[in-house]
Amino acid sequence: MYRTLILAGVLALAPITAAAAQDAGPTDAQIAHIAYTAGQLDVAAAQQALEKSTNAEVRAFAELMARDHAAVNEQAVALVTRLQVTPEANPTSAALTEAAKATHDRLQALDGAAFDAAYVASEVAYHQTVNTALSGTLIPQADNAELKSLLETGLTLFQSHQAHAEHLAQSVR
């Protein structure tokens, strides 16, 4: 829940932070960094679940999260390399990292069913927030058509992750 509130606030403020700094929305370089950071953080969360969980369904979900987010991030790296764009660190990606650290530490203190339920609930909230940011801010603000297309592909995939996490949450209460 704490991760949800922090992440929601961070992503809701992303366009405001960028607008205040530049009098416009986030640049493609900032969007690339935010999206990549969000993917890496979910890979790290999945790795934590694989280390701590013994629940077969939770482990399968975590494996899917690690595989899918790593694959999208590989595509993102290939795109920015080909376009010769250097992803730009920004307050939003830094805040995402800080919020993920707090969530990691909170989850690390849990074991068994309590860990599983908290991890899955965190994944539901994380995907809800990231999907809202993608559809409401990052995709509309992206200037490069290829970046926008990759973000749209990611959104479709991450919406399915959200549905999967919501379904899984019903069985790990």
Report on the structure:
This protein has six helices and no strands. It is mostly helical and 173 residues long. The protein is elongated, with a radius of gyration of 16 Å. The relative contact order is 0.19.
List the helices and strands and how they pair.
Elements: H1 2-22, H2 28-52, H3 56-83, H4 91-108, H5 112-141, H6 145-169
Give the tags:
6 helices; mainly alpha; 173 residues
Summarize it:
This protein has helices at 2-22, 28-52, 56-83, 91-108, 112-141, 145-169. With 173 residues, the protein is mostly helical. Helix 1 runs antiparallel to helix 4.
Instruction: Tell me the number of helical segments per DSSP (H or I, 4 or more residues long).
Output: 6
Radius of gyration: 16 Å
Indicate the multimeric state. Answer: single chain
Spatial separation of the terminal alpha carbons? 15 Å
Q: Indicate the proportion of strand residues.
A: under 5%
Instruction: Please state the structural category.
Output: mainly alpha
- The general outline is elongated
**Largest sheet geometry:** none
Order of helices and strands: HHHHHH
Secondary structure tally: strands: 0
Q: What's the average pLDDT?
A: 89
Percent range for helical residues? over 70%
Low-confidence stretches: 1-9, 15-22
